[in-house]
């Protein structure tokens, strides 16, 4: 708790931030530094208030802000816990790398396959390509902070990339360099039980719950450039979307 008090003073700096913002910043930094283990509980709000010499209202306000950010999750009757789940906005077209970096996590890939070839009948149908059109295929495991999060199997129309080796950590960054980054997409989500190979690669048990997301991405000129099928760990991901009437 002494370290948390020091972080609060550091967060305030030369500015007189409200106490709840000091605590909010201090808790966020403590979580980033690994002061609390994954999915572990924070100290009780009463304990935080007493040991830091601040009111419970201030503590509650700071924690409410972190819950709203998705960094903490409040469990009725149990307390406040570090949120290990990822909320993915189903209505926003962002890459895995962008999503992870926005949450302060470090993304990386383990490549399973990188190859070029001619479009298959299924790929031709999905991407609306003529038979014999060249495509690139990218299969990889996506990690965040060294935890395997999803398996990604992507087919990209060859005209959309400079070469097979153009893709580094982020496929969307490579597509953006050629002016072919998807600006809209059709997505389909379905629940499934992970099979043996999927479970092994994602380091979970066979039969654990998973999510399959299929995405067809379109460039600004209207051409389909990306067909991607991803398998997400069900214990790590929540997909959310904002809905409007009308």
Automatic annotation (TrEMBL):
The keyword Transcription applies. Keywords: DNA-binding, Transcription, Transcription regulation. PANTHER family: MANNOSYL-D-GLYCERATE TRANSPORT/METABOLISM SYSTEM REPRESSOR MNGR-RELATED, MANNOSYL-D-GLYCERATE TRANSPORT_METABOLISM SYSTEM REPRESSOR MNGR-RELATED. The keyword Transcription applies. Pfam families: GntR, UTRA. It comes from Massilia consociata. Signal peptide: none annotated. Residues 17-85 form the HTH gntR-type domain. CDD domains: WHTH_GntR (cd07377). This is GntR family transcriptional regulator.
